[in-house]
Amino acid sequence: MEPTMTRRPLPALLFALAAVGLVLGSALALPVAHAAAPTTPLTGTITGPSLVATLKTLKFTLNASGGPADAPNGSRIGNITYHIGLAASNLTGVSVSPSEGAIVTAAPSVIEFAAGTNPETVVITVEYSSIYQSENVSINITHTVTIVQPYVITATIYNVAGTTVLGFPVTIDLDGQPVGTVNVPSLTPRGQYNLSFDYATVGLSSGDHTFSISLIGQHGLVRFAGGAQSYSVTVYVVGPPPNYNLWYVVGVVAFLGVLFIFLTRVAARRRGALRK
User: Which of 117, 143, 159, 198 would suit a FRET pair with 105, their CA atoms being 20 to 30 Å apart?
Assistant: First the structure.
């Protein structure tokens, strides 16, 4: 008997080869997974004063970099945004503007902080977010501002000449040390300017303190009231109240000491009398 050979129909074989090719083609078409590019850590700052007088407005600078929004070479490929929150016992009249925005490379954002009438401590919290595609990293930066009731120095400056006097700065001294500057605008002939300066401080030591302003060397055409070239005002700062609790403790200890000595002597006398 001759050997027999089983032959697979040609259409079935072609179908099987096509299926294998389809599977291989799909596998080759799949995207190759790549590790995420390394990024620098997200960092941020808020720069500005820590003291502000009531009802005054101050400027703060915000800046941030790093995270997914910045490529390893430092170029900005995404967005870095900020959102600001305020915390205090009484936020009436306290605000910040703008309260949210974006940080542009090489261009820090500037915000304005407006103080209310209530002396208190306000905590400014800035949330920075670095965003690129589906990646998002955030950090919080805080800054504390103390709102204080300021010392207010006022004076009137007169132009005694018949010509216009150009604007000039005036330095405010406290106990002989400069603490601020006021820019006086141009004064028309025989004109005047009401100068006002707020000095914010957490406290001065007890005793007398003198604020002074001098116009010596300023054009020679401007004066204070009465023709004076200098002006000063002295304030007296009351010291802290005495700590009576300490005196009470000292008094009690002294009383107990005297009582102990008295009882010791009485006991000694009684022992002497009994021995007789």
Answer: 143
From CA 144, how far away is CA 181, in angstroms rounded?
25
Report domain extents, the chain. 43-148, 151-237
Distance CA 170, CA 183 (A): 6
Strand partners, 125: 85, 142
Angle at 56 between CA 222 and CA 174, to 5 degrees: 50
The token duo for 180 is 């601020």
Closest CA to 160 of 184, 188, 195: 188
Identify the CATH number of the domain defined by range 43-148. Answer: 2.60.40.10
8 A C-beta contact, residue 78 and residue 133: yes
Q: Measured between alpha carbons, how far is residue 188 from residues 163, 185, 195, 196, 241 in Å?
A: 7, 10, 15, 19, 50
The pTM assigned to this predicted structure is 0.68
Task: Per-residue pLDDT tens, the chain, 276 aa: give them.
Answer: 444 444 445 455 444 444 444 444 444 454 444 445 567 999 999 999 999 999 999 999 999 999 999 999 889 999 999 999 999 999 999 999 999 999 998 789 999 999 999 999 999 999 999 999 999 999 999 999 999 999 999 999 999 999 999 999 999 999 999 999 999 999 999 999 999 999 999 889 999 999 999 999 888 899 999 999 999 999 999 877 666 665 555 555 555 555 556 566 655 565 555 555
Half-sphere exposure of 187 (CA within 13 A, CB side): 25
**268 phi and psi angles, rounded to 5 deg:** -65, -40
- CATH class given for the domain over 151-237: mainly beta
Name the CA dihedral angle for 237, 240, 242, 245, rounded to a multiple of 10 degrees. Answer: 170
